[in-house]
Amino acid sequence: MKTSYISYTSPIFLILLLVLLASARPARADSSDWVQVQRFERQLAKARDGKVSAMYEVGRMYERGRGVDINFAEAVNWFEKASAGGNAPAKARLGILYFEGRGVSQDHEKAYQLFKEAANENIPSAEYQLGLMYEWGTAVPQDRNEALKWYTKAKAHGDYRAENKIRQLKASVKKAPRPATTASAAAKPADTKNTSSAAKPAEKKSVPVPTTPAGVLAAILQGQWSEGDLDAAVLPSKSSECSVKDSQIFCRGKQERSTTTEIIVFESESVLSDFNKTRFKLSYTNTAIEVKPKKKLRSGPMGENDSGPVTGNIKPGQKTRPRELDCEMIKGKRIKCSRDNIPQSSFDLAQ
User: Which of 81, 101, 121 is the last residue of a domain?
Assistant: First the structure.
C-alpha cells in the first residue's frame, strides 16, 4: 500500500497553509480586545433590559472605545438614559461631554447644571469640574473662594487632581498684592507744594514683554517656573534640567503627586515646540519612579472613578501616555495651558 503525501512545494499544500493561517486565532493582544467586545455585548444587553448601571457602562465604553468604536453621540445617548434613571456618575460624564462639545453641541450652562446635580451626590469628578468653572469664570462669575470650596470637596472624595489645584489657588492668593487701605492712604497725603522732578518717585523700568517666538522661547528658558507652590517639572525650574535644540526646549524633572492611597515620585520628560508669537505646544510623559503607600483607607461605595487611582495600582516604571497641551505666555510672567480649549494647568514665573 502506497502512502500518499503532499509536497511542501505543491499548490495544494500552499492553499491549505493559507487557509490555516486565515483561520488561526488572533494574537494575544487581539484576544484581549475580543474580551472587551464580549463585555460590551453583555453590558449592552443588560442596558437594553433597563439596568441603569449597565447604561452607564455602555456609555463609558462608547466614550473610550472599549469593545466598540468610539462614538460620542452614542455615549451621550446612554448617559442621558442612565441619568434619567438616577445614575449620578452618568450625570458627571454627560456634563463633561456637554462642556467639551463631544457628541453634542457645546453648552457650558447645561454642563454646569449636570455637574451641580452630580456634585450634590458627592461625585468627585463633578466637584472638580465645578472648581474649574469657578476658577476660570466659565458660565459662572469667577470666584476663587467658590472654586476652593469645590476643589476641597473633590479632594475629600478622592480626586487627586484637586490637591494640586488647592495648592495653586492658595499660592496665588499669597502672591496677589494687597490694595492700600483708606487709613494708609490718609496717612500719606499727596504733597501738592513740591512739584519738582526731585520730589517725584523714581519710575520703574518697564520689562519688555516677549511677543516673538524667539523671545518667548528665551523668556521660558531663562526663567524659573512654578505650578502653585511646587517647582514645575515640565518647564525650567529648580527641579528640572532643560536644553534647547532646533528651536525646541527639552526638559526632564522630578515631582511628587499624592493620591488617596499613595505618594508617587515621578519623572517628567517634556518638549516645548511649535512657537508662534506667544503660543506654543507642550507635550510630556510621566514615569513613576517610586510609590510610597499611605495609610489604609476605608473602602467607599462604587461610583465615578475618573478622578484617578483609588487603589494602589501604580507601579514603579509605569509610564503615562504622551499628553499634549496648547500653551500661551501671558505678559512674560504666566503660562496658561489648555487641551481642547479646556484649561488644564497654569505656571507662574518664580519670584
Answer: 121
Question: Has residue 301 been placed in a domain?
Answer: no
Q: CA-CA distance, 326 to 179, in Å (whole number)?
A: 33
pLDDT in tens, 261-303: 667 788 889 999 999 989 999 999 888 888 877 654 333 333 3
Domain that holds residue 43: 31-121
Same-domain status, 111 and 223? no
Q: Render pLDDT for 11-61 as a digit per residue (tens, 0 to 9).
A: 555 555 444 444 444 333 334 567 888 889 999 999 999 999 999 999 999
C-alpha 68/C-alpha 52 separation (Å) is: 19
Reading the block at residue 50, the C-alpha cell is 433597563
Give the total number of structural domains in the chain: 2
Last residue of a domain, one of 121, 150, 168: 121
* 144 occurs within a structural domain: no
Measured distance CA(131)–CA(149) in Å, rounded:
7
* Averaged pLDDT for residues 76-97: 95
- The answer as to whether 71 is a domain residue is yes
CB of 60 closer than 8 Å to CB of 93 = yes
